[in-house]
Amino acid sequence: MDQILGAQSIQFEHPPYFAGDASIVGEKEGQGPYRKCFDKVEKDPYFGTDSWEEAESQLQLQTAALALHKANISSGEIRYIFAGDLLGQNIATSFGLVDLNRPLFGLFGACSTIGESLSLGAMTIAGGFAKKVLCLTSSHFGSAEKQFRFPLEYGNQRPLSATWTVTGSGAFILSGESPSPWDNVCITAITTGRITDYGVSDSMNMGAAMAPAACDTIFQHLQDFSRMPEDYDRIITGDLGSIGRDILLKLLMDKGYDISKQHMDCGIEIFDPDTQDTHAGGSGCGCSAAMLSAHILKQVRAGVWKRVLLVPTGALLSTVSFNEGQTVPGIAHGVVIEHV
Question: Out of 55, 140, 193, 281, which residue is the most buried by the measure of CB atoms under 10 Å away?
């Protein structure tokens, strides 16, 4: 069987299984609609450390350890780790996971990183290069604000187009073997995204920057598989927020696809707009990763959803590119998750 499909996709002949997963979030996320779904809600934003950066490292390590515990395996059984974060040089990941002492591929796809991580992990398993891999990402409101905007002590005002960086992490064990006869949730296919730049230069409007990339990946995925939106129970973007969602739906309508009935956005879902002041919604590497573990996989395992297309979205900017007046390119990676 030729696993290469269409222009940008892969359909796995032997789909890798989700053997374990975990989610840990901060107090604000724990006050949202999915408060009872996360494995742990940590009320201390410093996670027992002295800085935001150390806190995110600890967040990532705790989530990885919990996923390993839930999968009933040791870190020594992990062949590779695919992980990343939003901080410069991936320091949350490298400092956080050093004690696991496992081979690491450090990744950066901005808020799309969990899509990249799961894609590469699935390819590694399906290709026979590992029996088990660990895929994870994290983000932290304090560390992200400090790096990309202003330190929290500055108390700057946020425009209505801004999203709130999620303090959270999601970790996933992928395996070549099913963890149990009744828990057969797999990654059956992926569609790797392309860098898309529509000239958006407002770093406070991530939704507008990322929506064209989400559109490009979803459109190409449907083309590659000769499918329609109704072939999916949900088409789930990572963190477009309310503004990005509207742009995405319009862009896809222009291409002949109406996904309004299937679409869900993790950034919109994770906070309650009526009780939590997050403006356009949530964002960050931890947004879609935490929601995947806390809610999406549970719906698939229960058979409520048979097939979902997860499309984490990322804005590829840095402090350097922003200060030099560059635009904000976007990227999105598609991951098909099914109960088989």
Answer: 140
Per-residue model confidence as pLDDT tens digits over 77-117? 999 999 999 998 999 999 999 999 999 999 999 999 999 99
Are the folds of 4-175 and 185-339 the same?
Answer: yes
Beta bridge partners of 132: 175
Q: Which long-range contacts (CB under 8 A, 24 or more apart) does 225-231 make?
A: 225/5, 225/6, 225/9, 225/11, 225/189, 228/257, 229/257, 229/258, 229/259, 229/261, 229/262, 230/261, 230/262, 231/307
CA separation, residue 277 to residues 25, 32, 101 (Å): 17, 11, 40
The domain spans of the chain are: 4-175, 185-339
Angle between the N-to-C axes of helices 52-71 and 141-148, in degrees from 0 to 180, rounded to the nearest 10:
140
**Helices assigned H by DSSP within the chain:** 27-30, 52-71, 91-96, 113-126, 141-148, 206-225, 241-254, 266-269, 285-291, 297-301, 319-323
> Which CATH number describes the domain made up of 185-339?
3.40.47.40
Instruction: Give me 243's structure tokens.
Output: 């503004």
- pLDDT, one tens digit per residue, over 112-167 is 999 999 999 999 999 999 999 999 999 998 887 766 665 555 456 665 556 678 99
CA angle 156, 110, 135 (to 5 degrees): 130
Token pair recorded at residue 11: 């359909």
CATH dotted code for 4-175: 3.40.47.40
In angstroms, the CA 163 to CA 156 distance is 14
Provide the terminal-to-terminal Cα distance of the chain, rounded to the nearest Å.
19
Which tokens hold the place of 138? Answer: 């994290």
Q: Token match 């976007």: residue? A: 330
Name, in order, each residue with C-beta under 8 angstroms of 143's C-beta and a sequence gap of 6 or more.
52, 53, 55, 56, 86, 87, 92
Q: pTM of the predicted model, to two decimals?
A: 0.94
Q: How far apart are CA 141 and CA 40, in angstroms?
A: 17
